[in-house]
Amino acid sequence: MAAFTMDPNWIPFDPNPSKPAFRLPEGAVDAHCHVFGPGNEFPYAPERKYTPCDAGKDKLFALRDFLGFQRNVIVQATCHGADNRAMVDALRASGGMARGVATVRDTVTDAELADLHEAGVRGVRFNFVRRLVDPKPDAYYRAIIDRIAPLGWHIVIYFEAADLEEKWGFFTSLPTTVVVDHMGRPDVTKPVDGPEFGRFIRLMEDHPNFVSKVTCPERLSRSGPPTYDDVIPFARLLVERFPDRVLWGTDWPHPNMTTHAPDDGGLVDIIPRIAPTADLQRRLLVDNPMRIYWG
Ligand code: 0GY
Questions:
Q1: Which residues line ligand 1 (CB under 6 A)?
Q2: For residue 81, which of 45, 108, 54, 112 has the smallest C-alpha distance?
Q3: What average pLDDT does this structure show over 67-93?
Q4: Which domains, and CATH codes, for the chain?
């Protein structure tokens, strides 16, 4: 009997992805992925907004090898709250080939932070997506920043495009490297050169400490799989304009998909469409994640 039952409408990850035609450069990093449980070993958090299918480290590492990546950046998923044990267990099992981004509370102790650092954590994630977490005041995050900045960690932020205007002052006051999940979640039915994505471009232009993940075509697309054509111009613009400030990841095991589970091999095959030269591909997949997570 499993300890947890996944939500009835949960779409599990594709267990048989295709082999990508695109050959990843040597040393490529999947810089955005998660582990879920397994729940009987690493229980899901009581405050979670969803109960996923189990997706543990062994499956993540098998996917890494199958797709041709060498390293992972494992981002704490909200279904585990601030209990980082599943993610830390994966980091420790990776033999130095994974780094982590944790979720911590403002009550975290220095000893806990030191343990996380030793395991390979190099950042914290602040999540502002209301369907995933309950909002907290800025002062809560500032207390955490005071604690993590001395470790040289950075901050990952996840927000909806519509919330950028309101959060602009807080985001641009952050003193560390700031990594933005999924291009700030643009509405890709709006023009790439329109005011909404223009605000995000301005954030990147004016604040050189910002880095964008050019991730999640499967999540942002309205035109759909397998080519996700409507997302390509947004990601490509960022890669070409900010080649040293972009990261790429699979987002495996793809939480909260509502229409389909993407083919992870197909996602890898999108990379040459957003990073068309070998030089851009190397910066996106190797140089940038190595500098930020293993530097
Ligand atoms: C993602 C996106 C989502 C979920 C989470 O931590 C999470 O639960 O990040 C989402 O539902 O959009 O990055 O995996």
A1: 34, 77-79, 132, 181, 251, 255-256
A2: 45
A3: 98
A4: 29-294 (3.20.20.140)
